[in-house]
Structure formats: C-alpha cells, structure tokens
Write a structure and sequence with these properties.
5 strands, five-stranded antiparallel sheet, single chain, alpha+beta
C-alpha cells in the first residue's frame, strides 16, 4: 500500500533514528512505497512500512550476487514490529530478534563467497 508523502517523511525520519540507535547504519536507499534500506559495511537491512497495519517489516539482506555462490541455502531473516512502539523499541527488537541469526548467516555467506573467489583464482593459474 502506497503511503502519503507525509507518511513517507515520517517513515524516513523513523528509519534514520532507528539506524542511529543501531549504531553506524546509514540510510542508503528508499522507494516511493515506504521501503527504506540502511547499511553498515556489507550489512544491509530493509524496512518496509504499512500504514494500514501500523507495522514495519525489517529484513536482513546478503551482498548482491552472493546467491550464485550460496545456491539458495542462505535463509532470509525477517521480523515485524509495531511502529507505535517507537524507535528505541524497534531498534532493540532488531538487535535482539534479527541481528544475531542474520549476522551468523551473513558470516557464512561471506566465507562462501571468499572461498568461491579463491577457487576461481586458483583455477585461472
């Protein structure tokens, strides 16, 4: 569901505050449907707002192109939170409920990509 411009501005502001609370994340992309992406290094999270439900869905993403190496074994990580709980509670939920498993799988994905690149380098010798 598309949000009004005022609702998008509110969602952007909330996303920026959540990024601050998570530490060193920055807003890196947004779309007109209240989807925002925040990033810290290779760690990228998307936040999608639903005004009808009053909720935000947060997803952890893997680096672009890594799916060619992981062949589908890297599982998605997603939680939802009530927007009314505010930035600190949402950031705390992300930290507690999403980031531990996402970071563990991200480490495995990054290792798989590094191993793949090493094999590719050796094959070219």
């Amino acid at each position: 569901m598309k949000l009004t411009p005022a609702q998008i501005d509110e969602a952007r502001h909330l996303t920026e505050r959540i990024a601050e609370d998570l530490g060193d994340y920055t807003l890196c992309r947004e779309n007109k449907y209240a989807g925002f992406w925040i990033q810290r290094g290779v760690k990228k999270l998307s936040l999608h707002y639903s005004s009808r439900l009053g909720r935000v869905t947060i997803e952890g993403h893997y680096p672009e192109g890594s799916s060619r190496v992981t062949a589908g074994w890297a599982k998605p990580h997603r939680i939802t939170c009530a927007v009314s709980r505010g930035r600190s509670a949402i950031a705390a939920d992300i930290t507690r409920r999403l980031l531990p498993a996402y970071h563990a799988d991200l480490d495995k994905v990054l290792q798989a990509v590094a191993d793949h690149l090493q094999v590719q380098s050796l094959a070219q010798l």
